[in-house]
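2024-03-11 09:14:02 DEBUG pipeline.ingest accepted 1 chain
2024-03-11 09:14:02 DEBUG pipeline.ingest length=762
2024-03-11 09:14:03 DEBUG pipeline.predict start
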Amino acid sequence: MTKKSSMELFKVNINHNYKDLLLQHLSQLNLVHIKTKPEISDIIKKDKVLFDRIKKLSQNLETLFKNLNITESDFQKLIFEKEERKAFEAKDIDDLLNQILSEINFYSNRVNELKKYMITIKVELDKINLIHGSYIFLEKYELTRDKLSKFNRLEFKAFTTFSKNLENIENLFEFSHFPNFFQYDFLSDERIAFFVIYPKEQEEAFRERLRFIHAEEIPILKKYLLSNGINFPRIADEIKFIVTSLNKYQKELERLRDDNILLFAATNEITQNIEEYDWASHQFEELSLNRLSLSFYVPQEKKQEIQKGLIEKFQDQITIESIAITKNKSVSLKEDKNHIHSGKLPDSKRKDSSLKEEPTNNNKEIKKDLRSTAPTIMKNNFFVRPFETITKMYGVPAYSEIDPTPFLAITFPLLFGLMFGDIGHGIILIISGLIGVFVFRNKKSTDFINFCWIILYCGIGSILVGILYGEFFGMHNIELFGMVFLHLEPVTIPIFNITLHNPLNNIMVVFKFAILIGVIHINLGWFIQFLNYWKQHRKYLGFTDSLIKIWLLTGGTILIFTFGFDIYRWMEPPYPILLPLLPGILLILLKPFGKLFHVSYLKEETIGGLIGEGTMESFETLLSIMSNVASYIRLLALALAHISLMVAIISMGNLFQGDGIINEIINIIVLIFGNMFVILLEGLLVFINTIRLHFYEFFFKFYQGTGVTYIPFYLDDKYSIISFKLYAIKDVISEEIDKEIESKKAHEDIIKAEKYISKKYL
């Protein structure tokens, strides 16, 4: 956390008529983090009417876009000048909602009307196409109107139905059961056409049989069936007319979509803005005299700029109070249970705060550390920033604590590399990370891009440790296509004077190294805890807690690594048992001494309570140290598993030895897919275990992760411009005078109307 990320709390007091203008101004800054009211959920439940209107607007918009086949990607493809954005001028949020609803309803009604016409036309088109296909079938039998007129005692009927009914039709119109002449043909895979000629006196029996198959009768119309044959030109003209009508309505629908797509993008944007705006509007506190109060955080380096802008915009209609939220000491407001309205500040003092930082013991006042609600801005350089994603998975740094991301950027790739040490696999990870960054560079979400960068950094860690292990795709030589480019020699680590080359034959050395890494990692966590205590002016606690625990863990490590588990040697001069024993005793006694030394944050505790707390904490620390350090044995376990898998894959490839090209191809395939299996499966396991070591063994020592994410209040204005009109503010007396004038004017108009009617008609 740098000085640049410090926050300033603003509390502004404004007339309720300027509420919309204030929110609009703050949204344009894109710097303001609005302070959430604790009772916000109860207020939103009460304002159900507005919520229902917003929900209805969203549903109407979604239905309209579905009917017009519009998606978010269509909006992103729009190319237009900034001046072409759609402007909406409104009195307040209710007026804006009414305007948007009116726009949406107008176009929804028009689209629904066009859709209704198109559905009707499509039904007619299906019918005429069915008639056309059926008449083609009837033409095979040279059907004419003259021939049908000669059927005196016979009836001719044509139908269409589903082809699955064919077997039933054949059974129903079996000649032995029902005298008739029956013919059919397939119009498509799913439809058939058929006609039946039967005696007129069998009409009732025919109808009974027809009910079983749900057939649709083909109309034999004079306009289609002429005396000399079927009038196909007439049918073709009707099809052409219907298709033309359908195309006309389709083009009108497309024109409606294309001509107004920027408007639709603007309404969609405003609908989303209204939901954000509605939340922000509930953060105001109602004061007396139609005034409202709003609290928000801004970056400290932007304080003067924002304050100046507010004063220039609202002049004497706004009062501003501000307080710097420091990170190294508690900051609280003195708030009475009943809110006291502070009038306008004089011009000379308007830029300064009247809020207090001094603590108070008055029981009638409520004190709350503002750092608990102040948002955190995580500002890290380009190389460290991707690891913010992992930090946020645990939690956002509290405002007053150190951001662990820079430390994570170093330890995460190294621990990953210790479990996944291989130069070749590291190169693959680097290439994969770069490809991911390039391919997904335009994605809105940065988390996926961050993970791609993390994979790249993990690849670097794998290469560094791979040099120490002497591993290149499971081999001790950098070898490609049978050519050895470099033999990997053992590399000595200067600090520890040890060699990790070929871990399978060097297990105990790697085991001790894993334990040492665990001790260093845990101590680093306690050291950051010490820095946090120092920043928060709790230096005594930093020395008596964090540093003592570092001494305890380091002393125990030296004792075990130097003297082993020989208890008799521990008790002999120079008495190495004192290395962990002394810090253990001090951990119990130093807090009670802090009470005697009048350390401020220990004043409320009792000496007996502190001794009991220290004793329990000492035993808990001892037990947690053993389990925490043991967790780092997984560094060795997964490293050995990784190397063993590669040995197995190489051995499988060597089974296919020979001079033939087929054996070479099989060997290459085995090596490629074997390496892919190891990289994907074990790489995932190693990544998960690296996260686990940081979350449970490292972060748990110092990191709370209870911060509030800095989310600037912002209303999108890519497609739309919202302007709120400000009407003249009238006091109660002026409003009553206006009502009296309007009443007198209305009375005079009535008298004039009576005189006019009497004179003209009576």
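2024-03-11 09:14:41 DEBUG pipeline.report DSSP finds 23 helices and 21 strands in the chain.
2024-03-11 09:14:41 DEBUG pipeline.predict end
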